[in-house]
Amino acid sequence: MPILIRRGWEIPEARVTPEHLVFGRRKAMLAGAGLLAAPAMASAQEAAPLRAMRNTRYVPGRDITGEREATTFNNYYEFGSDKGISRPAQRLPQRPWTVKVEGMVETPREFGIEDLLRTMPLEERVYRLRCVEAWSMVVPWTGFPISALLEVVKPLASARYVVFETAAIPAVMPGLRQSWYPWPYIEGCTVAEAANDLSFLVVGAYGKLLPPQNGGPIRFHQPWKYGFKAGKSIVRITLTDRRPVSFWEQIQASEYGFWANVNPEVAHPRWSQASERVLGTNARIPTQLFNGYGEFVAGLYTGLQNERLWA
Amino acid sequence: MPWRDRTGAFSPFKAVVFAALFLPALLLAEAAWTATLGPKPWQAATHDSGTWAIRLLLLSLAITPARQILRQARIAELRRMIGVACFAYVMLHLVIYAGDLAFDWLKVASEILRRIYLTIGFVALLGLAALAATSTDGAVQRLGGPGWRRLHRLAYPIAALALVHFTLQSKADVTEPMLMAGLFAWLMGYRLVAPQGGAPSLPVLLALAVAAAAATAGIEFAWYALATGINPWRVLEANLDVTFGLRPALWVGIAGLGAAALRALPRRRTARRPAEA
Description:
The complex is a heterodimer.
Chain A: H1 19-22, H2 25-32, H3 67-72, H4 86-89, E1 98-103, E2 109-112, H5 113-119, E3 123-130, E4 135-145, H6 146-153, E5 161-166, E6 186-190, H7 191-195, E7 200-205, E8 208-209, E9 219-221, E10 234-240, H8 247-251, E11 275-278, E12 284-286, H9 294-297
Chain B: H1 12-33, H2 41-61, H3 63-70, H4 79-100, H5 105-114, H6 116-133, H7 137-143, H8 145-152, H9 155-169, H10 175-193, H11 202-227, H12 232-238, H13 248-264
Helix pairs in contact in B: 1-2, 1-4, 2-4, 2-9, 2-10, 4-6, 5-6, 6-9, 7-8, 9-10, 10-11, 10-13, 11-12, 11-13
Protein backbone atom coordinates (compact mmCIF):
# COMPACT_ATOMS: atom_id res chain seq x y z
CA MET A 1 0.00 0.00 0.00
CA PRO A 2 1.91 3.11 -1.13
CA ILE A 3 1.35 5.99 1.22
CA LEU A 4 2.15 9.41 -0.08
CA ILE A 5 3.64 11.52 2.62
CA ARG A 6 3.90 15.14 1.69
CA ARG A 7 7.41 16.28 2.39
CA GLY A 8 7.92 19.57 4.06
CA TRP A 9 9.45 21.26 1.12
CA GLU A 10 6.52 20.54 -1.15
CA ILE A 11 5.04 23.95 -0.74
CA PRO A 12 2.69 25.59 -3.20
CA GLU A 13 4.00 28.45 -5.29
CA ALA A 14 1.68 30.78 -3.41
CA ARG A 15 3.72 30.40 -0.23
CA VAL A 16 6.99 31.43 -1.78
CA THR A 17 8.04 34.90 -0.65
CA PRO A 18 7.11 37.24 -3.50
CA GLU A 19 10.03 38.53 -5.48
CA HIS A 20 9.23 42.17 -4.82
CA LEU A 21 9.47 41.52 -1.08
CA VAL A 22 12.75 39.64 -1.34
CA PHE A 23 14.41 42.22 -3.55
CA GLY A 24 12.65 45.27 -2.12
CA ARG A 25 13.13 44.67 1.56
CA ARG A 26 14.27 48.22 2.24
CA LYS A 27 11.10 49.61 0.74
CA ALA A 28 8.94 47.07 2.50
CA MET A 29 10.60 47.93 5.78
CA LEU A 30 10.02 51.63 5.36
CA ALA A 31 6.41 50.95 4.53
CA GLY A 32 6.05 48.77 7.58
CA ALA A 33 8.04 50.92 9.97
CA GLY A 34 4.92 52.08 11.76
CA LEU A 35 3.60 48.56 12.21
CA LEU A 36 5.95 47.49 14.95
CA ALA A 37 3.45 48.37 17.64
CA ALA A 38 0.70 46.24 16.13
CA PRO A 39 2.17 43.10 14.56
CA ALA A 40 -0.64 40.97 15.95
CA MET A 41 -1.37 38.95 12.83
CA ALA A 42 2.16 38.81 11.52
CA SER A 43 2.88 35.63 9.65
CA ALA A 44 6.14 34.38 8.20
CA GLN A 45 5.59 36.11 4.91
CA GLU A 46 4.46 39.43 6.28
CA ALA A 47 6.37 39.58 9.54
CA ALA A 48 6.87 43.11 10.74
CA PRO A 49 10.38 44.49 10.45
CA LEU A 50 12.60 44.49 13.49
CA ARG A 51 15.79 46.39 12.98
CA ALA A 52 18.82 46.43 15.21
CA MET A 53 22.52 47.12 14.87
CA ARG A 54 24.61 44.15 13.87
CA ASN A 55 27.10 42.96 16.47
CA THR A 56 30.40 42.57 14.62
CA ARG A 57 32.14 40.59 17.33
CA TYR A 58 30.71 37.28 16.17
CA VAL A 59 31.43 36.74 12.50
CA PRO A 60 29.85 33.69 10.85
CA GLY A 61 32.67 33.09 8.38
CA ARG A 62 30.25 31.80 5.76
CA ASP A 63 27.26 32.94 3.80
CA ILE A 64 23.97 33.64 5.50
CA THR A 65 21.47 30.87 4.75
CA GLY A 66 18.60 31.90 2.53
CA GLU A 67 15.59 33.08 4.49
CA ARG A 68 13.37 30.65 2.68
CA GLU A 69 15.51 27.64 3.67
CA ALA A 70 15.84 28.77 7.26
CA THR A 71 12.10 29.39 7.64
CA THR A 72 10.78 26.27 5.88
CA PHE A 73 13.04 23.56 7.30
CA ASN A 74 12.29 23.42 10.98
CA ASN A 75 12.36 20.91 13.78
CA TYR A 76 9.31 21.68 15.87
CA TYR A 77 7.69 18.50 17.14
CA GLU A 78 4.70 20.33 18.56
CA PHE A 79 3.64 20.90 14.96
CA GLY A 80 4.80 17.62 13.44
CA SER A 81 7.75 15.30 13.28
CA ASP A 82 8.98 16.21 9.81
CA LYS A 83 10.72 19.43 8.90
CA GLY A 84 7.83 20.92 6.94
CA ILE A 85 5.88 22.49 9.77
CA SER A 86 6.14 26.12 8.72
CA ARG A 87 2.55 26.29 7.57
CA PRO A 88 0.81 24.70 10.59
CA ALA A 89 3.09 26.74 12.86
CA GLN A 90 1.45 29.94 11.56
CA ARG A 91 -1.51 29.11 13.79
CA LEU A 92 0.52 29.76 16.91
CA PRO A 93 -0.73 33.13 18.18
CA GLN A 94 2.24 35.46 18.67
CA ARG A 95 0.34 38.13 20.61
CA PRO A 96 -0.41 38.46 23.44
CA TRP A 97 2.65 36.59 24.67
CA THR A 98 4.19 36.60 28.07
CA VAL A 99 7.32 35.01 29.50
CA LYS A 100 7.35 34.15 33.18
CA VAL A 101 10.76 34.27 34.84
CA GLU A 102 10.58 32.58 38.20
CA GLY A 103 12.12 30.10 40.60
CA MET A 104 15.29 31.04 42.40
CA VAL A 105 15.25 34.73 41.61
CA GLU A 106 14.92 37.81 43.82
CA THR A 107 12.08 39.31 41.81
CA PRO A 108 10.03 36.82 39.80
CA ARG A 109 8.34 38.60 36.90
CA GLU A 110 6.12 38.10 33.93
CA PHE A 111 7.26 39.99 30.85
CA GLY A 112 5.05 40.90 27.95
CA ILE A 113 6.85 40.34 24.66
CA GLU A 114 6.33 43.99 23.71
CA ASP A 115 8.01 45.08 26.93
CA LEU A 116 11.01 42.92 26.12
CA LEU A 117 11.19 44.34 22.60
CA ARG A 118 11.09 47.83 24.04
CA THR A 119 13.34 47.52 27.06
CA MET A 120 15.97 44.93 26.18
CA PRO A 121 19.17 45.94 24.35
CA LEU A 122 18.32 44.51 20.91
CA GLU A 123 21.14 43.73 18.50
CA GLU A 124 21.59 41.58 15.43
CA ARG A 125 23.94 38.62 15.60
CA VAL A 126 24.78 36.34 12.73
CA TYR A 127 25.11 32.89 14.32
CA ARG A 128 26.02 29.50 12.94
CA LEU A 129 23.47 26.90 14.00
CA ARG A 130 24.67 23.30 14.01
CA CYS A 131 21.92 20.69 14.30
CA VAL A 132 22.69 17.34 15.94
CA GLU A 133 21.40 15.84 12.66
CA ALA A 134 24.61 17.03 10.95
CA TRP A 135 23.23 20.01 9.10
CA SER A 136 23.87 23.65 9.72
CA MET A 137 22.72 27.10 8.77
CA VAL A 138 23.75 30.69 9.33
CA VAL A 139 20.99 32.98 10.54
CA PRO A 140 20.92 36.70 11.35
CA TRP A 141 19.07 36.67 14.66
CA THR A 142 17.81 39.76 16.40
CA GLY A 143 17.67 39.56 20.17
CA PHE A 144 19.50 40.24 23.39
CA PRO A 145 21.83 38.33 25.68
CA ILE A 146 19.86 36.47 28.33
CA SER A 147 22.13 38.03 30.93
CA ALA A 148 20.28 41.32 30.31
CA LEU A 149 17.02 39.64 31.32
CA LEU A 150 18.54 37.85 34.30
CA GLU A 151 19.90 41.18 35.58
CA VAL A 152 16.32 42.37 35.96
CA VAL A 153 15.14 39.38 38.03
CA LYS A 154 18.43 38.80 39.89
CA PRO A 155 19.07 35.05 40.25
CA LEU A 156 19.76 33.88 43.80
CA ALA A 157 23.24 32.60 44.56
CA SER A 158 21.75 29.13 45.02
CA ALA A 159 20.44 28.97 41.43
CA ARG A 160 22.57 26.68 39.25
CA TYR A 161 20.42 25.95 36.18
CA VAL A 162 18.21 27.89 33.81
CA VAL A 163 15.25 25.95 32.40
CA PHE A 164 13.34 26.98 29.28
CA GLU A 165 9.79 25.83 28.71
CA THR A 166 8.13 25.93 25.31
CA ALA A 167 4.45 26.77 24.87
CA ALA A 168 2.12 23.76 24.74
CA ILE A 169 -1.22 24.80 23.26
CA PRO A 170 -3.21 21.74 22.16
CA ALA A 171 -5.68 23.80 20.12
CA VAL A 172 -2.99 24.89 17.65
CA MET A 173 -0.24 22.29 18.14
CA PRO A 174 -1.35 18.99 16.59
CA GLY A 175 1.88 17.28 17.65
CA LEU A 176 0.76 17.40 21.27
CA ARG A 177 -1.77 14.72 20.34
CA GLN A 178 1.21 12.37 20.32
CA SER A 179 0.54 12.06 23.98
CA TRP A 180 3.49 9.75 24.65
CA TYR A 181 6.06 12.53 24.26
CA PRO A 182 7.04 14.29 27.49
CA TRP A 183 5.41 17.64 26.77
CA PRO A 184 6.06 20.48 27.29
CA TYR A 185 9.43 20.84 25.55
CA ILE A 186 12.02 21.56 28.22
CA GLU A 187 15.61 22.61 27.71
CA GLY A 188 18.20 24.07 29.99
CA CYS A 189 21.76 25.12 30.69
CA THR A 190 23.81 26.14 33.68
CA VAL A 191 23.67 29.65 35.08
CA ALA A 192 27.35 30.00 34.19
CA GLU A 193 26.59 29.11 30.55
CA ALA A 194 23.65 31.51 30.47
CA ALA A 195 25.93 34.27 31.77
CA ASN A 196 28.12 33.89 28.68
CA ASP A 197 27.55 36.74 26.26
CA LEU A 198 26.83 34.31 23.39
CA SER A 199 23.71 32.97 25.16
CA PHE A 200 21.09 34.81 23.19
CA LEU A 201 17.35 35.23 23.51
CA VAL A 202 16.10 35.63 19.95
CA VAL A 203 13.06 37.72 19.01
CA GLY A 204 13.78 38.29 15.33
CA ALA A 205 15.42 36.85 12.24
CA TYR A 206 16.34 38.37 8.88
CA GLY A 207 15.45 41.83 10.16
CA LYS A 208 11.88 40.86 11.03
CA LEU A 209 9.98 39.50 13.99
CA LEU A 210 10.87 35.87 14.59
CA PRO A 211 8.39 33.66 12.71
CA PRO A 212 6.62 31.00 14.77
CA GLN A 213 8.20 28.03 12.97
CA ASN A 214 11.61 29.30 14.07
CA GLY A 215 10.40 29.66 17.63
CA GLY A 216 8.64 33.02 17.55
CA PRO A 217 7.98 35.19 19.31
CA ILE A 218 10.96 34.34 21.52
CA ARG A 219 13.50 31.51 21.52
CA PHE A 220 16.93 30.76 22.87
CA HIS A 221 20.19 30.00 21.06
CA GLN A 222 23.63 29.03 22.30
CA PRO A 223 25.53 28.59 19.06
CA TRP A 224 28.24 26.32 20.45
CA LYS A 225 25.66 23.66 21.33
CA TYR A 226 23.59 21.43 19.07
CA GLY A 227 20.40 23.07 17.92
CA PHE A 228 17.98 21.01 20.00
CA LYS A 229 19.29 22.82 23.09
CA ALA A 230 17.66 25.98 21.76
CA GLY A 231 14.12 26.02 23.13
CA LYS A 232 11.47 27.65 20.97
CA SER A 233 8.42 29.80 21.70
CA ILE A 234 9.40 30.20 25.35
CA VAL A 235 6.68 30.84 27.92
CA ARG A 236 8.61 30.20 31.11
CA ILE A 237 12.19 30.54 32.30
CA THR A 238 12.88 28.92 35.66
CA LEU A 239 16.01 29.22 37.77
CA THR A 240 16.65 26.17 39.87
CA ASP A 241 19.33 24.20 41.68
CA ARG A 242 18.26 20.92 40.04
CA ARG A 243 19.58 19.86 36.69
CA PRO A 244 16.65 19.58 34.29
CA VAL A 245 16.06 16.50 32.16
CA SER A 246 15.23 17.89 28.75
CA PHE A 247 12.55 16.70 26.32
CA TRP A 248 15.00 14.86 24.09
CA GLU A 249 17.04 13.53 26.99
CA GLN A 250 13.88 11.91 28.33
CA ILE A 251 13.08 10.38 24.94
CA GLN A 252 16.55 9.17 24.00
CA ALA A 253 19.18 9.80 26.65
CA SER A 254 21.84 7.92 24.68
CA GLU A 255 21.59 10.42 21.82
CA TYR A 256 20.72 13.72 23.47
CA GLY A 257 22.56 14.70 26.63
CA PHE A 258 22.45 17.74 28.89
CA TRP A 259 25.59 19.53 27.69
CA ALA A 260 25.42 18.75 23.95
CA ASN A 261 28.40 20.89 22.96
CA VAL A 262 29.35 20.53 19.31
CA ASN A 263 32.36 18.25 18.80
CA PRO A 264 33.33 16.73 15.46
CA GLU A 265 35.34 14.00 17.19
CA VAL A 266 32.45 12.53 19.13
CA ALA A 267 30.10 10.63 16.84
CA HIS A 268 26.38 10.48 17.35
CA PRO A 269 25.40 6.84 17.95
CA ARG A 270 23.99 6.71 14.40
CA TRP A 271 26.24 8.97 12.39
CA SER A 272 29.52 10.82 12.34
CA GLN A 273 29.54 14.43 13.53
CA ALA A 274 32.81 15.14 11.70
CA SER A 275 31.15 17.14 8.95
CA GLU A 276 27.91 18.93 8.25
CA ARG A 277 25.66 19.74 5.32
CA VAL A 278 25.20 23.46 4.85
CA LEU A 279 21.50 24.04 4.40
CA GLY A 280 20.54 25.22 0.94
CA THR A 281 23.93 24.44 -0.60
CA ASN A 282 25.63 21.38 -1.93
CA ALA A 283 28.52 21.83 0.48
CA ARG A 284 29.59 19.41 3.18
CA ILE A 285 32.11 21.10 5.43
CA PRO A 286 34.12 20.00 8.46
CA THR A 287 32.43 20.62 11.79
CA GLN A 288 34.39 22.70 14.30
CA LEU A 289 34.83 22.09 18.02
CA PHE A 290 32.23 24.19 19.90
CA ASN A 291 30.89 25.01 16.43
CA GLY A 292 33.84 27.41 16.12
CA TYR A 293 32.96 29.41 19.25
CA GLY A 294 35.64 27.80 21.43
CA GLU A 295 37.52 31.05 22.09
CA PHE A 296 34.42 32.41 23.83
CA VAL A 297 33.16 29.33 25.67
CA ALA A 298 35.85 26.69 26.17
CA GLY A 299 36.68 28.18 29.56
CA LEU A 300 33.20 27.30 30.82
CA TYR A 301 34.15 23.65 30.91
CA THR A 302 37.44 23.57 32.74
CA GLY A 303 37.12 21.09 35.55
CA LEU A 304 34.13 19.39 33.94
CA GLN A 305 36.09 16.75 32.01
CA ASN A 306 34.21 13.97 33.76
CA GLU A 307 30.90 15.20 32.40
CA ARG A 308 29.49 13.98 29.09
CA LEU A 309 30.11 17.33 27.49
CA TRP A 310 29.72 16.46 23.83
CA ALA A 311 26.37 14.94 23.04
CA MET B 1 11.52 -8.98 -21.56
CA PRO B 2 9.36 -7.64 -18.77
CA TRP B 3 6.61 -6.56 -21.14
CA ARG B 4 6.09 -10.00 -22.62
CA ASP B 5 4.21 -12.86 -21.03
CA ARG B 6 5.41 -16.43 -20.82
CA THR B 7 4.42 -17.19 -24.38
CA GLY B 8 6.46 -14.23 -25.64
CA ALA B 9 3.41 -12.17 -26.59
CA PHE B 10 3.20 -8.48 -25.70
CA SER B 11 1.32 -8.08 -22.40
CA PRO B 12 -0.19 -4.62 -21.86
CA PHE B 13 -0.81 -5.54 -18.20
CA LYS B 14 2.85 -6.26 -17.58
CA ALA B 15 3.99 -3.32 -19.68
CA VAL B 16 1.90 -0.87 -17.66
CA VAL B 17 3.22 -2.18 -14.35
CA PHE B 18 6.78 -2.18 -15.71
CA ALA B 19 6.44 1.47 -16.70
CA ALA B 20 4.85 2.34 -13.35
CA LEU B 21 7.88 0.95 -11.52
CA PHE B 22 9.98 3.75 -13.03
CA LEU B 23 7.58 6.41 -11.81
CA PRO B 24 9.00 7.01 -8.29
CA ALA B 25 12.51 7.34 -9.72
CA LEU B 26 11.32 9.71 -12.43
CA LEU B 27 9.46 11.84 -9.90
CA LEU B 28 12.57 11.88 -7.73
CA ALA B 29 14.72 12.88 -10.69
CA GLU B 30 12.25 15.61 -11.57
CA ALA B 31 12.28 16.93 -8.00
CA ALA B 32 16.08 16.89 -8.03
CA TRP B 33 16.18 18.62 -11.40
CA THR B 34 13.75 21.36 -10.33
CA ALA B 35 15.49 21.70 -6.95
CA THR B 36 12.31 21.01 -4.98
CA LEU B 37 13.89 18.43 -2.69
CA GLY B 38 14.28 21.01 0.06
CA PRO B 39 17.38 22.41 1.70
CA LYS B 40 18.92 18.95 2.24
CA PRO B 41 18.23 17.36 -1.13
CA TRP B 42 20.68 14.43 -0.79
CA GLN B 43 19.16 13.24 2.42
CA ALA B 44 15.62 13.72 1.13
CA ALA B 45 16.49 11.64 -1.94
CA THR B 46 18.16 8.98 0.22
CA HIS B 47 15.01 8.65 2.28
CA ASP B 48 12.72 8.65 -0.74
CA SER B 49 14.61 5.95 -2.65
CA GLY B 50 14.97 3.79 0.46
CA THR B 51 11.31 4.07 1.34
CA TRP B 52 10.36 3.02 -2.18
CA ALA B 53 12.69 0.04 -2.00
CA ILE B 54 10.91 -1.16 1.13
CA ARG B 55 7.48 -0.54 -0.37
CA LEU B 56 8.42 -2.58 -3.42
CA LEU B 57 9.89 -5.35 -1.29
CA LEU B 58 6.60 -5.65 0.61
CA LEU B 59 4.68 -5.40 -2.65
CA SER B 60 6.64 -8.34 -4.03
CA LEU B 61 5.68 -10.30 -0.91
CA ALA B 62 2.05 -9.31 -1.45
CA ILE B 63 1.93 -10.91 -4.91
CA THR B 64 1.06 -14.39 -3.73
CA PRO B 65 -1.72 -13.26 -1.35
CA ALA B 66 -3.12 -10.93 -4.02
CA ARG B 67 -3.10 -13.69 -6.62
CA GLN B 68 -4.86 -16.10 -4.32
CA ILE B 69 -7.37 -13.67 -2.84
CA LEU B 70 -8.29 -12.15 -6.20
CA ARG B 71 -8.01 -15.50 -7.97
CA GLN B 72 -6.01 -13.82 -10.74
CA ALA B 73 -3.16 -16.10 -11.74
CA ARG B 74 -1.57 -13.51 -13.99
CA ILE B 75 -0.64 -11.32 -11.01
CA ALA B 76 2.17 -13.79 -10.37
CA GLU B 77 3.83 -12.62 -13.58
CA LEU B 78 4.56 -9.29 -11.87
CA ARG B 79 6.62 -10.65 -9.02
CA ARG B 80 9.98 -10.84 -10.73
CA MET B 81 9.93 -7.30 -12.11
CA ILE B 82 8.81 -5.87 -8.77
CA GLY B 83 11.57 -7.74 -6.98
CA VAL B 84 14.22 -6.61 -9.44
CA ALA B 85 12.88 -3.05 -9.28
CA CYS B 86 13.22 -3.22 -5.51
CA PHE B 87 16.90 -4.08 -5.93
CA ALA B 88 17.32 -1.22 -8.40
CA TYR B 89 15.89 1.22 -5.86
CA VAL B 90 18.18 -0.16 -3.17
CA MET B 91 21.19 0.46 -5.41
CA LEU B 92 19.91 3.96 -6.15
CA HIS B 93 19.52 4.43 -2.40
CA LEU B 94 23.16 3.44 -1.82
CA VAL B 95 24.47 5.67 -4.60
CA ILE B 96 22.49 8.67 -3.35
CA TYR B 97 23.69 8.01 0.19
CA ALA B 98 27.25 7.99 -1.14
CA GLY B 99 26.43 11.27 -2.87
CA ASP B 100 25.39 12.72 0.48
CA LEU B 101 28.90 11.86 1.66
CA ALA B 102 30.30 13.60 -1.45
CA PHE B 103 31.05 10.19 -3.05
CA ASP B 104 33.81 9.57 -0.56
CA TRP B 105 33.54 5.78 -0.87
CA LEU B 106 36.08 5.16 1.86
CA LYS B 107 33.88 7.15 4.21
CA VAL B 108 30.81 5.29 2.93
CA ALA B 109 32.48 1.97 3.71
CA SER B 110 33.61 3.04 7.16
CA GLU B 111 30.16 4.39 8.01
CA ILE B 112 28.58 1.10 6.87
CA LEU B 113 30.95 -0.80 9.13
CA ARG B 114 30.64 1.51 12.10
CA ARG B 115 26.90 2.23 12.26
CA ILE B 116 24.94 -0.87 13.03
CA TYR B 117 21.80 0.29 11.18
CA LEU B 118 23.88 0.83 8.05
CA THR B 119 25.52 -2.58 8.44
CA ILE B 120 22.09 -4.19 8.67
CA GLY B 121 20.86 -2.28 5.64
CA PHE B 122 23.94 -3.30 3.69
CA VAL B 123 23.45 -6.98 4.52
CA ALA B 124 19.90 -6.66 3.20
CA LEU B 125 21.31 -5.06 0.04
CA LEU B 126 23.72 -7.98 -0.46
CA GLY B 127 20.86 -10.42 -0.04
CA LEU B 128 18.77 -8.59 -2.60
CA ALA B 129 21.73 -8.59 -4.96
CA ALA B 130 21.86 -12.38 -4.73
CA LEU B 131 18.15 -12.63 -5.43
CA ALA B 132 18.34 -10.18 -8.33
CA ALA B 133 21.30 -12.04 -9.83
CA THR B 134 19.33 -15.29 -9.77
CA SER B 135 16.25 -13.76 -11.33
CA THR B 136 17.11 -14.48 -14.97
CA ASP B 137 15.43 -17.37 -16.78
CA GLY B 138 18.82 -19.04 -17.08
CA ALA B 139 19.51 -18.80 -13.35
CA VAL B 140 16.12 -20.27 -12.54
CA GLN B 141 16.86 -23.21 -14.83
CA ARG B 142 20.33 -23.76 -13.44
CA LEU B 143 19.10 -23.70 -9.83
CA GLY B 144 16.05 -25.82 -10.59
CA GLY B 145 12.59 -25.00 -9.26
CA PRO B 146 12.98 -26.23 -5.66
CA GLY B 147 16.49 -24.83 -5.26
CA TRP B 148 15.48 -21.48 -6.69
CA ARG B 149 12.46 -21.31 -4.40
CA ARG B 150 14.53 -22.17 -1.34
CA LEU B 151 17.02 -19.42 -2.19
CA HIS B 152 14.32 -16.86 -2.82
CA ARG B 153 12.73 -17.53 0.53
CA LEU B 154 15.59 -15.30 1.68
CA ALA B 155 13.24 -12.46 0.74
CA TYR B 156 11.57 -12.88 4.15
CA PRO B 157 14.64 -12.38 6.36
CA ILE B 158 15.87 -9.66 3.98
CA ALA B 159 12.60 -7.79 4.44
CA ALA B 160 12.94 -8.15 8.21
CA LEU B 161 16.48 -6.70 8.06
CA ALA B 162 15.32 -3.87 5.84
CA LEU B 163 12.59 -3.01 8.34
CA VAL B 164 15.06 -3.03 11.23
CA HIS B 165 17.31 -0.71 9.19
CA PHE B 166 14.34 1.55 8.45
CA THR B 167 13.31 1.68 12.11
CA LEU B 168 16.80 2.23 13.54
CA GLN B 169 17.52 5.18 11.26
CA SER B 170 14.39 7.01 12.37
CA LYS B 171 14.67 9.76 14.92
CA ALA B 172 11.91 9.43 17.49
CA ASP B 173 8.96 9.06 15.18
CA VAL B 174 8.77 5.48 13.88
CA THR B 175 5.26 5.73 12.46
CA GLU B 176 6.12 4.74 8.90
CA PRO B 177 8.54 1.91 9.80
CA MET B 178 5.93 0.52 12.20
CA LEU B 179 3.27 0.67 9.49
CA MET B 180 5.59 -1.26 7.18
CA ALA B 181 6.46 -3.73 9.95
CA GLY B 182 2.76 -4.30 10.57
CA LEU B 183 2.07 -4.96 6.90
CA PHE B 184 5.01 -7.36 6.89
CA ALA B 185 3.47 -9.11 9.92
CA TRP B 186 0.24 -9.55 7.95
CA LEU B 187 2.14 -10.92 4.94
CA MET B 188 3.99 -13.43 7.09
CA GLY B 189 0.84 -14.35 8.99
CA TYR B 190 -0.93 -14.96 5.71
CA ARG B 191 1.68 -17.57 4.81
CA LEU B 192 1.15 -19.29 8.13
CA VAL B 193 -2.62 -19.58 7.74
CA ALA B 194 -3.04 -20.02 3.98
CA PRO B 195 -3.84 -23.56 2.92
CA GLN B 196 -1.70 -25.11 0.19
CA GLY B 197 -2.24 -23.20 -3.04
CA GLY B 198 -5.23 -21.08 -2.09
CA ALA B 199 -6.48 -18.18 -0.01
CA PRO B 200 -7.64 -18.65 3.57
CA SER B 201 -11.35 -18.48 4.25
CA LEU B 202 -13.05 -15.21 5.10
CA PRO B 203 -13.16 -15.84 8.89
CA VAL B 204 -9.46 -16.68 8.89
CA LEU B 205 -8.66 -13.48 6.98
CA LEU B 206 -10.75 -11.45 9.42
CA ALA B 207 -8.89 -13.00 12.33
CA LEU B 208 -5.59 -12.33 10.52
CA ALA B 209 -6.49 -8.65 10.14
CA VAL B 210 -7.09 -8.34 13.87
CA ALA B 211 -3.96 -10.32 14.71
CA ALA B 212 -1.77 -8.23 12.38
CA ALA B 213 -3.13 -5.01 13.90
CA ALA B 214 -2.41 -6.36 17.38
CA ALA B 215 1.07 -7.43 16.26
CA THR B 216 1.73 -3.91 14.96
CA ALA B 217 0.74 -2.41 18.29
CA GLY B 218 2.90 -5.02 20.01
CA ILE B 219 5.98 -4.34 17.88
CA GLU B 220 5.53 -0.64 18.44
CA PHE B 221 5.14 -1.14 22.18
CA ALA B 222 8.31 -3.23 22.28
CA TRP B 223 10.26 -0.67 20.25
CA TYR B 224 9.34 2.23 22.51
CA ALA B 225 9.93 0.13 25.63
CA LEU B 226 13.36 -1.15 24.55
CA ALA B 227 14.81 1.63 22.44
CA THR B 228 13.49 4.88 23.90
CA GLY B 229 12.75 6.59 27.19
CA ILE B 230 9.14 7.00 26.14
CA ASN B 231 6.47 5.29 28.22
CA PRO B 232 5.24 2.47 25.94
CA TRP B 233 1.88 2.30 27.69
CA ARG B 234 1.16 5.84 26.55
CA VAL B 235 1.93 4.74 23.00
CA LEU B 236 -0.36 1.73 23.32
CA GLU B 237 -3.16 3.89 24.71
CA ALA B 238 -2.76 6.35 21.85
CA ASN B 239 -4.02 3.68 19.43
CA LEU B 240 -7.47 4.59 20.71
CA ASP B 241 -7.00 8.26 19.84
CA VAL B 242 -7.66 8.96 16.18
CA THR B 243 -7.49 12.75 16.35
CA PHE B 244 -3.85 12.91 15.18
CA GLY B 245 -4.59 10.63 12.25
CA LEU B 246 -4.71 6.87 12.39
CA ARG B 247 -1.84 5.09 14.07
CA PRO B 248 0.01 2.22 12.32
CA ALA B 249 -1.92 -0.56 14.06
CA LEU B 250 -5.21 0.85 12.79
CA TRP B 251 -3.92 1.19 9.22
CA VAL B 252 -2.72 -2.40 9.27
CA GLY B 253 -6.09 -3.51 10.59
CA ILE B 254 -7.84 -1.59 7.83
CA ALA B 255 -5.57 -3.09 5.18
CA GLY B 256 -6.24 -6.56 6.57
CA LEU B 257 -9.98 -5.98 6.54
CA GLY B 258 -9.65 -4.72 2.97
CA ALA B 259 -8.01 -8.00 1.99
CA ALA B 260 -10.81 -9.90 3.69
CA ALA B 261 -13.40 -7.81 1.84
CA LEU B 262 -11.75 -8.66 -1.48
CA ARG B 263 -11.94 -12.31 -0.52
CA ALA B 264 -15.67 -11.91 0.06
CA LEU B 265 -16.26 -10.59 -3.46
CA PRO B 266 -18.32 -12.98 -5.53
CA ARG B 267 -16.17 -15.35 -7.53
CA ARG B 268 -15.71 -14.10 -11.05
CA ARG B 269 -15.85 -16.51 -13.91
CA THR B 270 -12.36 -17.16 -15.17
CA ALA B 271 -13.26 -16.30 -18.71
CA ARG B 272 -10.21 -14.28 -19.63
CA ARG B 273 -7.68 -17.00 -19.80
CA PRO B 274 -8.09 -20.41 -21.23
CA ALA B 275 -7.57 -23.11 -18.67
CA GLU B 276 -3.91 -23.56 -17.98
CA ALA B 277 -3.22 -27.11 -18.84
